[in-house]
């Protein structure tokens, strides 16, 4: 018979971690209670003076720090998976702005309440744990589970980041990402116009001016210059088409993702070619134009990276709709080792996808293959609000 898996011991490391947590609650509760009561009472008492509000803000900042210690302890001993909140939002510069941010920080006040409540709860938990360690050994594991549950509820209800505040912070980050991406695109367009089509058009104007001067004196030479200018016009038009395709390809607007991604795959220099399978739009519905644009440029950048860096023989692109989400899967059989490193190209794609509440995942072990999965909303928040 196969060996049955061993069940975790009731008196294992987890239980002893909970015991330690309950015993430490008391000294931390005393320290937090004294600090909170003294600083907040003195700060409120002196609120009519210049020193009162800064002292009150300092007390709330200290309570916020003590809340951070409590969150770290809860993650280590109680198995809580709460996120760490960001700093208070400073809306005004300078010392006064920091004081106002601390005084209007909801988490700071909730942390102060936690520091006050921790003392009576710490006394109760310490006394019960000590009694059980001495005379209630058989009931200790179950009692520790109950105390840990109450502790976790207390921490998560008072010290967790406010959902609305977190959402506002995420939206601010997304807005910053979108603004940075738009600014980068504008700089790229300006650079491409200045170094490419504009330079060719300036040279073309000079050549045509010289040809005009020579038209009566040396018609043959003038004809050669006009012929050369004609070639420059073709090159300038091609550069303008490429630039327009980089902004938003007409084929994407007119025919959708299937045709646009097939065109991108046809230009990819992977030796074995790129297979594209798009299973959206068969019923006449299409994602929002902003989502289509992000999907197009994401796939385009990924295929460019595969051509330049992956050393792949072939690649595939799959696009489908799943429960109101647009799914992308780009795979190649290259050398692997790709990662979303800060400042890298994949990090920029991840930020652009995240700006519309999307998900960007990279699986690329050394030696390959590489799979990049992108999940995008079928419609953006702005589009849903406009339709509503």
TrEMBL record:
<protein>
    <recommendedName>
        <fullName>histidine kinase</fullName>
        <ecNumber>2.7.13.3</ecNumber>
    </recommendedName>
</protein>
<dbReference type="Pfam" id="PF07730">
    <property type="entry name" value="HisKA_3"/>
</dbReference>
<feature type="domain" description="Signal transduction histidine kinase subgroup 3 dimerisation and phosphoacceptor">
    <location>
        <begin position="187"/>
        <end position="252"/>
    </location>
</feature>
<keyword id="KW-1133">Transmembrane helix</keyword>
<dbReference type="GO" id="GO:0016301">
    <property type="term" value="F:kinase activity"/>
</dbReference>
<dbReference type="InterPro" id="IPR011712">
    <property type="entry name" value="Sig_transdc_His_kin_sub3_dim/P"/>
</dbReference>
<keyword id="KW-0472">Membrane</keyword>
<dbReference type="Pfam" id="PF13796">
    <property type="entry name" value="Sensor"/>
</dbReference>
<dbReference type="InterPro" id="IPR050482">
    <property type="entry name" value="Sensor_HK_TwoCompSys"/>
</dbReference>
<keyword id="KW-0808">Transferase</keyword>
<keyword id="KW-0547">Nucleotide-binding</keyword>
<keyword id="KW-0902">Two-component regulatory system</keyword>
<dbReference type="InterPro" id="IPR025828">
    <property type="entry name" value="Put_sensor_dom"/>
</dbReference>
<feature type="domain" description="Putative sensor">
    <location>
        <begin position="23"/>
        <end position="138"/>
    </location>
</feature>
<feature type="transmembrane region" description="Helical">
    <location>
        <begin position="111"/>
        <end position="135"/>
    </location>
</feature>
<dbReference type="InterPro" id="IPR036890">
    <property type="entry name" value="HATPase_C_sf"/>
</dbReference>
<keyword id="KW-0418">Kinase</keyword>
<feature type="transmembrane region" description="Helical">
    <location>
        <begin position="23"/>
        <end position="48"/>
    </location>
</feature>
<keyword id="KW-0597">Phosphoprotein</keyword>
<keyword id="KW-0812">Transmembrane</keyword>
<keyword id="KW-0067">ATP-binding</keyword>
